């Protein structure tokens, strides 16, 4: 008998195809990525690394042909090593890196490995604050890293940009070991050049960018790449705009070499320090089925069609932001320069983000309630919602559909105003059902990748 889990997977498949995904950090992977994830590679242990010196410069056929020693702790690696080298080589080509560590299980693990590679306990790390749009792993007191390192934060200006003056002042006064630029709710393009110029005065400081949200836009050439501006390290997840399996990735510039011997702690040695920090520093066996799926996704992102995809994500987000603005939605930062939109629902309609999230769920539109920089609602009843266009763009929705979507979002916002609470949404069941059917009709015209 089939395990009941499969019934739930089928239901989730239906939920995904009948609704529209607006969560900016989600996407739909290709069948090829899914196939690699569900492959026999899941059976294999391969702690350690393949050898990879020179790999990014090789043709892929060479990677397959060459027999090289490795730094593994298990036998039977002849196929795994080649797969991991392909993933490394493609990641380096996509992001103009000297080295890629493709083993982090998640973005959080990737960030933690970089801190561990470069810092000692108590060292200072300067990062964007969580309320301003930064990420939990950038120093939120509830995380393990925050207990080990001394995080300090910078914020955003009223118009939603990084407060560069605050960042510069704190960086020069505190001389942090790491300056971290990254976020999960920020709609502008960072001025990497300005931060790299600042770092010229701080020769011991590692410049780190957590580009989890925009990695696909960078790969698609519609967002600047921090590594091109002098950043030493870029971390990312592989499942957001990059449209791969759930996982992490660390890209770096510097000298690539054997991870067996501890190198001197210099910025030049950062690739080796990172490899040692991922394994054995913070992780055990890599997930080779996921690494294979990463390799497949990187291969897809190297195609010219991915550039078109990335450009459409940004265009859809811009149009959606304009359409929402015209309908009275108040947008943090006034709009967006990337794939992501943050709406102040209190300022727009006097309702909180959670109520709006729940009401949209009822009609098959999924997004997440999100705190705003000056929020008083806390994490569970924040004033804002966060949405974005990567997943919808993968399904083929374009600017016409963004207009329709803004219309539905407005109708649902008006229902929330009338209802006032989640409990009262039931009183508007017919109105919500009418929208749900319209959403479903549109969604079914744009099937999931198959
Ligand atoms: N949880 C991710 C997001 O939704 O932005 C960040 O890790």
How does this model look, in words?
With 450 residues, the protein is an alpha/beta fold. It has helices spanning 5-18, 31-37, 60-65, 78-95, 107-118, 144-148, 164-174, 192-199, 215-219, 270-282, 288-301, 304-326, 345-349, 353-362, 390-395, 399-419, 429-445; strands at 20-21, 48-50, 70-72, 99-101, 124-128, 150-154, 178-182, 206-210, 233-237, 248-252, 330-331, 340-344, 365-366, 368-370, 384-388. Helix content is 43%, strand content 13%. The strands form four sheets. A seven-stranded mixed sheet has the order 4-10-9-8-7-5-6, with helices on both faces. A four-stranded antiparallel sheet has the order 11-12-15-14. Strand 5, helix 6 and strand 6 (150-154) form a beta-alpha-beta unit. Helix 4 packs parallel to helix 11 (288-301) and helix 16 packs antiparallel against helix 17 (429-445). The two termini are 26 Å apart. The model has no long low-confidence stretch (mean pLDDT 96). The structure holds D-serine (DSN). D-serine is lined by residues 25, 107, 135, 184, 212. D-serine binds at residues 25, 107, 135, 184, 212.
Keywords:
single chain, 450 residues, alpha/beta, Aspartate Aminotransferase, domain 2, Aspartate Aminotransferase, domain 1, 7-stranded mixed beta sheet, 4-stranded antiparallel beta sheet, 17 helices, 15 strands, 13% strand, globular, binds D-serine
């Amino acid at each position: 008998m089939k395990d009941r889990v499969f019934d739930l997977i089928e239901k989730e498949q239906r939920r995904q195809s009948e609704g529209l995904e607006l969560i900016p950090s989600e996407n739909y992977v290709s069948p090829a990525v899914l196939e690699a994830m569900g492959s026999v590679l899941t059976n294999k242990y391969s702690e350690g690394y393949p050898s990879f010196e020179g790999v990014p410069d090789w043709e892929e056929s060479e990677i397959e042909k060459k027999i090289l020693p490795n730094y593994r702790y298990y036998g039977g690696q002849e196929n795994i090593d080649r797969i991991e080298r392909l993933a490394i080589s493609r990641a380096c080509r996509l992001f103009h890196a000297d080295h890629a560590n493709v083993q982090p299980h998640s973005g959080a693990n990737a960030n933690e490995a970089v801190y561990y590679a470069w810092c000692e306990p108590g060292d200072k790390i300067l990062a964007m604050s969580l309320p301003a749009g930064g990420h939990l792993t950038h120093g939120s007191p509830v995380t393990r890293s925050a207990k080990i390192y001394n995080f300090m934060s910078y914020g955003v200006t009223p118009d939603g940009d990084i407060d560069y003056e605050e960042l510069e002042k704190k960086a020069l006064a505190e001389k942090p070991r790491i300056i971290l630029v990254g976020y999960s709710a920020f709609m502008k393009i960072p001025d990497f050049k300005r931060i790299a110029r600042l770092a010229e005065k701080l020769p011991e400081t590692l410049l780190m960018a957590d580009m989890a949200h925009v990695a696909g836009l960078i790969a698609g050439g519609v967002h600047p790449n921090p590594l091109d501006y002098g950043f030493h390290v870029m971390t990312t997840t592989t499942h957001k705009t990059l449209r791969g399996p759930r996982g992490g990735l660390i890209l770096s510039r510097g000298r690539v070499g054997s991870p067996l011997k501890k190198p001197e702690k210099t910025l030049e040695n950062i690739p080796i320090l990172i490899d040692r920090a991922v394994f054995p520093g913070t992780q055990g066996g890599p997930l080779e089925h996921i690494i294979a799926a990463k390799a497949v996704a990187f291969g897809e992102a190297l195609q010219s069609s991915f550039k078109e995809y990335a450009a459409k994500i940004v265009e859809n987000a811009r149009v959606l932001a304009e359409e929402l603005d015209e309908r009275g939605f108040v947008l943090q930062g006034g709009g967006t320069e990337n794939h992501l939109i943050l709406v102040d629902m209190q300022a727009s309609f006097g309702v909180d983000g959670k109520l709006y999230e729940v009401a949209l769920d009822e009609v098959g539109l999924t997004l997440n309630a999100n705190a705003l920089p000056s929020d008083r609602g806390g994490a569970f009843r924040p004033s804002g919602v966060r949405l974005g266009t990567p997943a919808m763009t993968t399904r083929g929705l374009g600017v016409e559909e963004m207009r329709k979507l803004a219309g539905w979002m407005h109708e649902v916002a008006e229902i929330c105003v009338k209802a006032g609470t989640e409990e009262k949404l039931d009183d508007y069941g017919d109105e919500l059902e009418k929208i749900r059917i319209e959403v479903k009709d549109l969604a079914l015209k744009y099937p999931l990748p198959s």
